[in-house]
Design goal:
Layout lengths: L16 E5 L4 H12 L3 E6 L2 H9 L5 E5 L5 H14 L5 E4 L17 H21 L5 E6 L23 H23 L5 E6 L14 H9 L1 H4 L3 H4 L1 H8 L8 E4 L9 E3 L9 H15 L13
Helix pairs in contact: 3-4, 4-5, 4-10, 5-10
Length: 306
C-alpha cells in the first residue's frame, strides 16, 4: 500500500453508483466530489434538498440529490424506496453524515439525536439498501467513525437514549463506537457472501462545522491548535475514499490519517479500541438496533468459530 495515498490513487469509477449521506458540505461533499471526478454516478443523500442541489452544482460529473433525514425512520424508508427504484445496483454506500456534541434532543421517533443520526439512521438505511449491494462484486458499505469512539465510550444498554443523565461527549462517543461495532458485525455477516464488504474510516481532526456544538472547554484548545492540528476537508475525506475504493482494502478494516495521533496526514490502516472488538456487545447492539428501527437485514447472523 502507498504511504501517501491521495485522490490520484482512486481507480476508475465509471459504471459505479455511490450513495453518500451528508454530502452537501464538509467531508461528505469532498467524498462525493472525488468519486464523481473519477466517473462514479454519485447520489448526494441530504436532509436539505436546496443545499444538496447547490452542492451538486459545484461537482463535475453525474450527480443526483436524494432527500434523506436520518433522524426520521419514515424519511429513511421513503428515501430507501426511492433509491431502490432508481438504482437496481449500488456499488458504494458511504454512511458519512453525523452530528457531534449536540445538546440533548430527541428525534421524532424518540431517540437521542446523536445515537439516532450517527448510528440508528445509518443502520436502518444500510439494511433497507443492502440487497442492492449484495449482487455486486466489490461493493462496499463504508461507515465514518471518529477517534471520539475512545472518549467516555461504551454502549449504555441500560440507558441508550441518555434519559437519566446526558453527556454530550459521552453520547457522541457511544454513537461513534456503535459505528465501528456495526461495521465489524456487518462484515462478519457479509463474509459468507463474498461480494460485499463493510469498512470503517475516520477523518482525524478536519475543518468541518461539526465542532459548532462542542463545549467551550473543547473548542478553545482546538482553535488554538488549529494551524498544526486541523487539516482541510479534502484531506479528511481521504480515509473514507481509500476505504471505499482501494482494491487492497479488506472488509472489517479501519482507515484514518497516518500521523502518530491520527489527527492528520495521508490515510492508512489504523486500529480501533479494544472495546470496539467485543463481539458479544456487537451482537447485542445489532439486535437492539433491529428492534428499535424495525429493520432486519437480508444476511443472517455470523457463524461463530467452534
Amino acid at each position: 500500500m502507498s504511504d501517501k495515498w491521495t485522490e490520484r490513487h482512486i481507480p476508475d469509477q465509471h459504471g459505479r453508483v455511490a450513495i453518500v449521506t451528508g454530502a452537501n458540505t464538509g467531508l461528505g461533499f469532498e467524498t462525493a466530489r472525488a468519486l464523481a471526478a473519477r466517473g462514479a454516478h454519485v447520489v448526494l443523500a441530504v436532509r436539505n434538498v436546496e443545499k444538496g442541489r447547490q452542492a451538486a452544482d459545484r461537482i463535475d460529473g453525474r450527480v443526483d440529490v436524494q432527500v434523506l433525514d436520518l433522524t426520521s425512520l419514515d424519511s429513511i424508508r421513503s428515501a430507501a424506496a426511492e433509491l431502490r427504484a432508481a438504482h437496481p445496483r449500488i456499488d458504494l454506500l458511504i454512511n458519512n453524515a453525523g452530528v457531534m456534541y449536540t445538546p440533548r434532543e430527541t428525534t421524532v421517533d424518540g431517540f437521542e439525536l446523536q445515537f439516532a443520526t450517527n448510528h440508528l439512521g445509518h443502520f436502518a438505511l444500510t439494511g433497507l439498501l443492502l440487497d442492492r449491494l449484495l449482487p455486486v462484486p466489490g461493493s462496499r458499505v463504508v461507515t465514518v467513525s471518529s477517534t471520539g469512539h475512545r472518549i467516555k465510550a461504551a454502549i449504555h444498554f441500560d440507558d441508550l437514549q441518555w434519559e437519566r443523565s446526558y453527556s454530550r461527549v459521552g453520547a457522541y462517543g457511544q454513537a461513534k463506537l456503535a459505528n465501528l461495532m456495526f461495521t465489524y458485525e456487518l462484515n462478519r455477516r457479509l463474509a459468507a457472501r463474498g461480494t460485499t464488504s463493510a469498512v470503517a474510516a475516520h477523518p482525524g481532526v478536519s475543518n468541518t462545522d461539526l465542532m459548532r456544538n462542542a463545549p467551550a472547554v473543547l473548542r478553545v484548545p482546538v482553535n488554538l491548535l488549529a494551524p498544526v492540528l486541523i487539516q482541510k476537508s479534502a484531506m479528511g475525506a481521504l480515509p473514507t475514499l481509500r476505504a471505499a475504493t482501494d482494491p487492497a482494502v479488506r472488509g472489517g478494516e479501519y482507515y484514518g490519517p497516518g500521523n502518530r495521533g491520527e489527527t492528520r496526514g495521508h490515510p492508512r490502516r489504523v486500529e480501533s479500541s479494544p472495546e470496539s472488538h467485543e463481539e458479544a456487545v456487537q451482537r447485542r447492539l445489532w439486535a437492539v438496533s433491529e428492534e428499535l428501527t424495525g429493520v432486519t437485514f437480508p444476511v443472517g447472523e455470523a457463524v461463530l468459530p467452534a
